[in-house]
Structures are given as C-alpha cells and as structure tokens.
C-alpha cells in the first residue's frame, strides 16, 4: 500500500532528523559558542522539537492504522521500553532547550551567548545521554520489529 510506505518514510525521516539534530547540537556546542554556533544550535533544537512531534504522531498512526496492529505493538515489552526511553530523552531535552531559549536575548542582538563552565558541562552531559538513549530506542525498535520478547 502506497500510503503505508509514505507513512513509514515520514516516520524514518523524523527518527533520522532527531538523531541528526541532537548530534549537530552536540558537535556544535562549545564552551564559548560563536553567534553562528548559537544560532545553529537554536535552529537544531527547533527542528528537534518538530521531528519529535512528527515521530510520535506518525508512529502512533503506524501502530493503530498501519503495519502489524496495536495488539502486536502494545504486547511487546520492547515497544513499551522504546516509548519509555523516548520519553526519557524528551524529558532530558528540556534542560538544553531552556538554556538555548535563554540565549535568545543575546542572539537577537547579534551577540554570542555567555556559557559558564557548569552550563557547558551539563548541556554536554545531557546531549551525550540523549544520544546513548536514542541508540537504546533504535535497539528496542529492532528487537520489537523482529518479534523478540513475545
């Protein structure tokens, strides 16, 4: 079915978008980000939010209207683990998002943000944790898709 293929594509696009934006935030973040770095990080964070909403909406459409059906997914411990890990990533992302939003006062004036050593360390720790947890999400998705754990 062509619609199912398009929905799957959108889901994969959103998943890869999440990985890409978190990676770019991690790669770009520095102890003293330039104005351009700060704007890139802020843009990545905006896209991260868009991709996260998209992955949830399209993912649940796949669960309930496409693929193997909701009974298959909800009976899988790895589906539930995947959702829990994704929720944890979302909760962790709140701290960097708040910090990046607070940079707006400086970036609107064309200035780079002032980042303390502690703030930099916390943001980097959270971004690393998000990337590791996202790998866990991908691993759970693979186990789930292969029917392991039933």
Describe the structure.
With 150 residues, the protein is an all-alpha fold. It has a single domain (2-145), classed as Four Helix Bundle (Hemerythrin (Met), subunit A). It is built from 7 helices and no strands. It is elongated, with a radius of gyration of 17 Å. The mean pLDDT is 95.
Blueprint (SSEs and pairs):
Elements: H1 2-28, H2 35-65, H3 70-74, H4 77-92, H5 94-102, H6 104-107, H7 117-145
Helix pairs in contact: 1-2, 1-7, 4-7
Provide a compact summary of the structure.
With about 150 residues, the chain is mostly helical. It is built from seven helices and no strands. The mean pLDDT is about 95.
Shape annotation: elongated
- Reading off the top of the CATH hierarchy, the class is best stated as Mainly Alpha
**CATH fold title:** Four Helix Bundle (Hemerythrin (Met), subunit A)
CATH architecture grouping = Up-down Bundle
Rg, Cα atoms, Å: 17 Å
Distance from N terminus to C terminus (CA atoms, Å) equals: 27 Å
Task: Report the major sheet.
Answer: none
| Percentage beta strand | under 5%
How many helices does DSSP assign?
Answer: 7
Low-pLDDT runs of 5+ residues are none
Q: How helix-rich are the residues, as a percent range?
A: over 70%
């Amino acid at each position: 079915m062509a619609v199912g293929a398009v929905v799957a594509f959108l889901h994969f696009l959103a998943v890869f978008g999440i990985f890409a934006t978190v990676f770019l935030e991690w790669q770009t973040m520095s102890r003293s980000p330039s104005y351009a770095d700060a704007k890139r990080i802020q843009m990545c964070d905006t896209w991260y939010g868009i991709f996260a909403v998209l992955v949830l909406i399209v993912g649940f459409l796949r669960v309930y209207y496409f693929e193997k059906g909701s009974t298959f997914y909800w009976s899988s411990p790895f589906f539930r683990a995947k959702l829990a890990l994704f929720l944890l990533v979302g909760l962790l992302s709140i701290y960097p998002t708040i910090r990046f939003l607070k940079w707006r006062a400086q970036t609107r004036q064309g200035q780079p943000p002032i980042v303390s050593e502690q703030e930099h360390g916390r943001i980097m720790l959270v971004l690393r944790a998000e990337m590791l947890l996202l790998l866990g999400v991908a691993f759970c998705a693979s186990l789930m898709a292969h029917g392991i754990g039933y």
